[in-house]
Amino acid sequence: MKLHDLRPDEGSTKKRKRVGRGTGSGKGKTSGRGTKGQNSRTGGGVRPVFEGGQLSFVKRLPKMRGFNNRFKVSYVAVNLDEMEKRFESGAEVSPETLEAAGLLGNASNPVVVLARGEISKPLTVKTHRISKSAQAKIEAAGGSVEVLDFAVNKRMPRS
């Protein structure tokens, strides 16, 4: 086999459409663009975001305002009524056990315990943050609370 024997596979290539080469070609005279109008002209057509003259979606969107704080901490909230349902008396409630129970959406975020509902079981709660009323309810039920450390962000802002 030599270089002059090489051919592309059958059907893998198409001949390009040659327009404006006479009426016999089927794409002569107006070259498949129709007659007159914006789209028949060179450089014609509307820009991609054009919506027929109504205010385009791009212009209707609000401009970016403010900024995104890189150091913002988003806590995952867990309420006492959910703990009451999912955990047995004397159980240890930590971010790991909460994740196993399916109460955490994003396990990488820190956990905050809030006081919605009542609790009657003594639980050992380990959390990153807890409301005062939730802590009072847990301790009133005979449980204990331990607040875990959470590193917000190790990176320092550039100056």
Give the structure's gist in a few sentences.
With 159 residues, the protein is of the alpha/beta class.
CATH A-level architecture of the domain at 85-147 = Ribosomal Protein L15, Chain: K, domain 2
Text of the CATH class of the domain at 85-147: Alpha Beta
Structural class: alpha/beta
What proportion of the residues form beta strands (DSSP E)?
Answer: 5-15%
Poorly predicted runs? none
Structural commentary:
There is one protein chain. This protein is α/β, with parallel strands linked by helices and 159 residues long. The protein has a domain at 85-147: Ribosomal Protein L15, Chain: K, domain 2, CATH 3.100.10. The protein has helices at 57-60, 80-86, 95-100, 132-140; strands spanning 76-79, 92-93, 111-114, 124-127, 129-130, 144-147. The chain has a 3-stranded parallel β-sheet with strand order 1-3-5. A 3-stranded parallel β-sheet has the order 2-4-6. The chain starts with 56 loop residues before the first helix and ends in a 12-residue tail after the last strand. 12% of the residues are buried. The model has no long low-confidence stretch (mean pLDDT 90).
